[in-house]
Automatic annotation (TrEMBL):
Its EC number is 3.5.4.26. It comes from Streptomyces bungoensis. Residues 230-351 form the CMP/dCMP-type deaminase domain. This is Riboflavin biosynthesis protein RibD. It is an enzyme of class 3 (hydrolase). It catalyses: 5-amino-6-(5-phospho-D-ribitylamino)uracil + NADP(+) = 5-amino-6-(5-phospho-D-ribosylamino)uracil + NADPH + H(+); 2,5-diamino-6-hydroxy-4-(5-phosphoribosylamino)-pyrimidine + H2O + H(+) = 5-amino-6-(5-phospho-D-ribosylamino)uracil + NH4(+).
Length: 377
């Protein structure tokens, strides 16, 4: 299921705190950075914060710039992004500023939290119960499918950020480092303990804004099993983009592939007909660049814009068999192979029979087909 693009946004002190323990909100950003945050808000369809942040900060979470609001209206969008909160207790203050400013409001909660939330808020907000527990994937799916949200900005607090990052659901982290210390172990931290991706995130940008620094990171670790992560989507997009590098052909598909270790390290990439070899396939080209003895292959994921082939005339082994032979047991792909060159190809079946997880993300099918449009009816 497609989810919105999930952007986590936070500011921290030099010692990693989100706030102090005083009654007022600690201002960590600089004025120019608050304006940058306003711009990011204006780009979002929805802004989400946890109920803890509502209780601690009583925020409005508005797009403050009239020009940015006018630009949203001119684009046919709501003047303000949808405001969303999550709560298990349903303990929400109906007088909080969140409910009385901006546009539509939405509460996600559990079966237990729904009644108290609805009683407290009345018609001020829509209340959606997601079952006995709040399931973040169900929440993202609901936001995408029912509320049309394509870009979600998450503004904390730490409990919410921690879950989204640990569950592999964050596409991007925008972190601002402020030049001050909190020094109080009772203060809230950005990320709590638990299981994070093993390797390094990908740094996409650093920017000095007055006396703070903005750092933008993308998680890189593939998912495990059949559940896709946000990083799976990034890597599959990369594979689809690699397909554009293929020398054109009337007799074979243009495909891109990337092999990624469990900690998010890229092991190899390839595309069809690369390096002057007129018949090499993308997965074959990528795997040929890996060391067959590399122990990371057993936990790696192969991303391929097209399902790995199950039969081919040009070489003895089809790509599904090459993947199994390399020890890889997880494949993410955008598009099942059509009957254009091989009837009833089933690379997915070959992989699944060998014990691999195959994850199909059909939202990338259009992108995977782009360099192959001349081959398709
Ligand atoms: N510096 C920054 O950029 C920044 C940004 C935002 C917030 N903050 C700070 O962060 C602090 C608040 O952080 P926090 O971690 O305490 O709170 P939080 O993450 O804002 O909210 C936590 C609350 O959200 C609800 N919640 C979270 N996950 C849930 C789940 N899976 N199912 C159901 N409900 C769930 C629960 O509400 P119920 O308790 O109602 O069940 C939970 O207590 C404040 O001090 C605030 O100033 C700083």
């Amino acid at each position: 299921m497609p989810y919105p693009y999930v952007l986590l946004s936070a500011a921290v002190s030099l010692d990693g705190y989100l706030d102090d323990t005083g009654p007022d909100r600690l201002l960590l950003s600089s004025p120019a950075d608050f304006d940058r945050v306003d711009e990011v808000r204006a780009s979002a369809d929805a802004i989400l914060v946890g109920a803890g942040t509502l209780r601690a900060d009583n925020p409005r979470l508005l797009v403050n710039s009239p020009e940015r609001r006018a630009a949203r209206r001119a684009e046919g969008r709501a003047e303000y992004p949808l405001k969303v909160t999550v709560t298990a207790s349903g303990d929400l203050d109906p007088d909080a500023r969140f409910w009385h400013t901006g546009g539509d409001k939405l509460v996600y909660t559990t079966d237990k939290g729904a009644d108290p939330a609805a009683r407290a808020l009345g018609p001020t907000a829509d209340v959606v119960a997601l079952g006995p527990e709040l399931d973040w994937r169900a929440l993202l799916e609901h936001l995408h499918d029912v509320r049309g949200v394509r870009r979600l900005m998450v503004e904390g607090g730490g409990t919410v950020h921690t879950q989204l990052l640990q569950q592999g659901l964050a596409d991007e982290l925008q972190l601002v480092l402020a030049p001050l210390f909190v020094g109080d172990p009772a203060a809230p931290r950005l990320f709590g303990p638990g299981g994070y991706q093993g390797g390094r995130l990908h740094l996409t940008e650093t920017r000095r804004i007055e006396d703070v620094v903005l750092m933008r990171y993308e998680p890189t670790a593939p998912g495990t099993g059949p559940e896709p992560t946000a990083a799976d989507r990034h890597w599959l997009r990369t594979a689809c983009e690699l397909a554009a590098l293929c020398p054109p052909s009337r007799t074979a598909f243009s495909v891109g592939a990337v092999v990624v270790a469990a900690d998010g390290t890229e092991l190899a990439r390839g595309h069809s007909r690369e390096g002057g070899d007129p018949v090499v396939h993308a997965e074959e080209a990528a795997l040929a660049k890996t060391d067959p003895a590399d122990p990371r292959l057993a936990g790696a994921t192969v991303y391929s814009s097209l399902e790995p082939c199950s039969r081919r005339a040009s070489r003895p082994a089809p790509c599904a068999r090459l993947i199994v032979g390399a020890g890889v047991r997880r494949v993410v792909t955008a598009w099942r192979e059509p009957d254009t060159f091989v009837t009833a190809a089933d690379g997915t079946g070959v992989l699944v029979d060998a014990g691999a997880d195959v994850v199909l993300l059909p939202e990338f099918e259009g992108l995977a087909k782009l360099p192959n449009a001349h081959l398709l009816p």
